Amino acid sequence: MTQYEVILFFYAFANCALAFCPTFLKNQTTCSCFAYIDGVVIRCSGQNGPAVVEQLKKTPTEIRELALENANIVEIGRNAFRNLRIKKLILDNNRIRALHPQAFRGLESVMLELSISKNKLTAIPTDSLIAMRALRVLSLRCNNIGDIKEPVFQNMSSIIDLNLECNQICNIEGSVFNDVKETLQNLILDNNCLSAVPSEALRGLDNLIGLHMNYNEIKQLESMQLTNLSSLTILSLTGNKISTIKSDFMPQAENLRYLYLGNNNLENIEAGVLHQFKQVQVIDMSNNYFTKITDDMFSGLEHLQHLNLEGNQIKVITEITFSLHYLI
């Protein structure tokens, strides 16, 4: 194949990709459409969103992403997306209160990402999600979801990233994450009302890399609250009310690299407490209530590279506290 023929081939291939955008979207002012090799990206904002879905059902198209935002959608009915192939579905900024158990029928082995953020859900829509075996990313942030008391992620064996931020979750019971413990890598529980680390629910999440519980009501980091989390690399607890950390809070922290404890109520860290985080590279304890930093507080942390203590009331720092040559 000559260079000229190669150029013609890729030009024709690009034109084919652009042809994926349905013609009925060309004059739409509330929707945009961009074509890519692996499908189209359609983003709609406004009340025409549901009508666009019905039009798409008549025009078989590989959809990489479909966003239906600000459409005042209250309920997702049965077979709402049937005959469509959607890899990523965004239903943010609506008024969704309910989903039919077969709302996503036909997408079970296709949809990889789903976001139903900033809506009116009061519970995780288990019946609608139960068969979503290909789903990898789920965001239900900023709804009205309350306590989670039973397994709600059944048959969702591909989930990697779960965002439950900005809800009303005060308690998570033991078996909630059982069905995703082999795959879950990132869990976001920020801006809820947790008063304690949900240790039973988190135990055994062997592949969890990031755990985020910022801006809750957690007061103590008690003994053995985080166990069997051998892959955990990032632990973020900024903006709680933590005043005490037990020396065996996380006894298996061999992979923890980033520890965020800013904006809490810490006044002192007892000698040896931080030894459990012996591989940590970054510690943020800014905006707490420390008045004195002693030489045994950070001893033994040979991999520590960055330590943030700004916004405290530190008056005394012992001489050898920061003789750690590895701090940068």
C-alpha Rg (nearest Å):
24 Å
Percent in strands = 15-25%
Shape: elongated
Question: Do you know the CATH topology of the domain at 216-328?
Answer: Leucine-rich repeat, LRR (right-handed beta-alpha superhelix)
Along the chain, the helix and strand elements come as HEEHEEEEEEHEEEHEEEEEEEEE
Care to count the β-strands? 20
Helix content: 10-25%
Pfam families: LRR_8
Keywords: Leucine-rich repeat, Repeat, Signal
Protein name: Leucine Rich repeat-containing domain protein
Signal peptide: 1-19
Provide structural commentary:
- This protein is 10% helix and 20% strand.
- With 328 residues, it is α/β, with parallel strands linked by helices.
- It is built from four helices and 20 strands.
- The relative contact order is 0.06.
- Strands 1, 2, 3, 5, 6, 8, 9, 10, 11, 12, 14, 16, 17 and 19 form a 14-stranded mixed β-sheet that branches. The protein has a two-stranded parallel sheet with strand order 4-7.
- It has helices at 3-18, 49-57, 126-129, 199-202; strands spanning 31-36, 39-45, 62-69, 75-76, 85-86, 88-90, 98-99, 113-115, 137-139, 161-163, 186-188, 210-212, 220-221, 234-236, 244-245, 258-260, 282-284, 292-293, 306-308, 316-317.
- The protein has a domain at 216-328: Alpha-Beta Horseshoe (Leucine-rich repeat, LRR (right-handed beta-alpha superhelix)), CATH 3.80.10.10.
- InterPro entries: Leu-rich_rpt (IPR001611), Leu-rich_rpt_typical-subtyp (IPR003591), LRR_dom_sf (IPR032675), SLRP (IPR050333).
- This is Leucine Rich repeat-containing domain protein.
- Residues 1-19 form the signal peptide.
